[in-house]
Amino acid sequence: MKLKRLIAWILSLFKKPVSIIPPEPIRPPEPPKPISPNEKLYEYARTFLGKDASPKDVATDEYGCAETITNIIHGCFGDFPVEGGTIISTITLFKKLKSHEKFELVTDFSYGDILVSPTGYGNGTIKNGHTGILGKNGLIMSNDSTTGLFKENYTIDKWVERFREQGGFPLYFFRRIE
């Protein structure tokens, strides 16, 4: 008797209607969002944090900020510096950025922008200008003059205090455009 009930129960399973849920339509993947030049430069610069971004030391570590930023820009985009080799002074970097067709001087700064306080424009209190790349949350990545390592070593406020207020240097922001 038990066997007949078991067989009847198994057969009843096959008589029940089966609901089939249609699969979700297959959608093509979203195309990747284009990355802005600022985002690209910022992300590329971050890969150098804690490293020497100008290992050839065309300029000594104490004066290596322009060489560091030039190497990072060139490594990221490939079209900088222009003919003539590595840029090793902030005044030369300022002039090249100002005249380069793919960089513009901006006042509404954002992460990924290049800051330059060029040597030769100060009041003499600080002998050299400086350059770096603006990171997120107001942190600035630049060459550490004592170690030659690329670090998040300034905030906007500290930069302004040191280079503009104490040193009398102007502060310029450049943005990559494409």
Computed Rg: 29 Å
Overall pLDDT confidence: 86
| Helicity, as a percent range | 25-40%
Order of helices and strands: HHHHEEEEEHE
Uncertain runs: none
What is the 3D shape?
elongated
Category by helix and strand content: alpha+beta
What kind of sheet is the major sheet?
6 strands, antiparallel
The proportion of residues in beta strands is 15-25%
Total of DSSP H or I helical runs spanning 4+ residues:
5
Describe the protein in words.
With 178 residues, the chain is an alpha+beta fold. The protein has 5 helices and 6 strands, in the order ααααβββββαβ.
Architecture blueprint of SSEs:
Blueprint: H1 2-15, H2 37-46, H3 65-77, H4 90-99, E1 103-106, E2 114-117, E3 130-134, E4 139-143, E5 150-155, H5 156-166, E6 172-176
Antiparallel strand pairs: 1-6, 2-3, 2-6, 3-4, 4-5
Helix pairs in contact: 2-3
Brief overview:
This protein has helices at residues 2-15, 37-46, 65-77, 90-99, 156-166; strands at 103-106, 114-117, 130-134, 139-143, 150-155, 172-176. By secondary structure, it is of the alpha+beta class.
Q: What labels describe this entry?
A:
single chain; alpha+beta; 6-stranded antiparallel beta sheet
